[in-house]
Write a structure and sequence with these properties.
Layout: H1 8-11, H2 22-35, H3 50-61, H4 64-75, H5 84-88, H6 95-108, H7 110-115, H8 133-142
Length: about 150
């Protein structure tokens, strides 16, 4: 898949200040492909660049996941299993955080969002009805009726 430019709305999602190391990213790419494999016209997690720009965006919004993901990656000892089920059978406590972060990063990819038919919520402008002016007209007409607070001169 070609790397598309990030659309403006995604550009608002901050990048993490503390990125993963190259080794952590390589391991994350391999592990993420166990979670999300290539199938039915959908890219795998590594094809969707989960381990690069999109995981950084997840950490930018959820910095609490960074430590949990690093811990989860450290818990996965070689050899890497061939399927997610085999990995899950190891009973690693950090697996849930890894799965959450990988899934979030996957759906931040605009190509993936397009393929699943996800459309970002559009901006709905707030409009005020002009007929509401009549409701506040008596209050506006009477003028201010408050007592000023006493001033303390320093």
């Amino acid at each position: 898949m070609n790397a598309p430019a990030l659309p403006a709305p995604l550009g608002d999602v901050p990048l993490s200040d503390v990125p993963l190391s190259d080794d952590e990213r390589a391991k994350l790419a391999s592990v993420a492909d166990l979670f999300i494999t290539r199938s039915s016209g959908m890219p795998s997690a590594s094809d969707a660049r989960v381990h690069s720009e999109f995981i950084d965006r997840v950490f930018g919004v959820r910095p609490d996941l960074l430590h949990a993901v690093r811990t989860g990656l450290r818990q996965i000892k070689p050899p890497l299993p061939g399927t997610f089920e085999e990995l899950s059978d190891r009973g690693l406590p950090g697996l849930r955080a890894l799965a959450d972060a990988v899934t979030a990063a996957y759906f931040l990819n605009p190509d993936v969002a397009r393929l699943v038919g996800y459309q970002k919520r559009s901006v709905i402008p707030i409009r005020f009805d002009d007929d509401l002016d009549g409701l506040v007209a008596p209050v506006s007409a009477r003028g201010p009726i408050y007592r000023p607070t006493p001033r303390e001169d320093s």
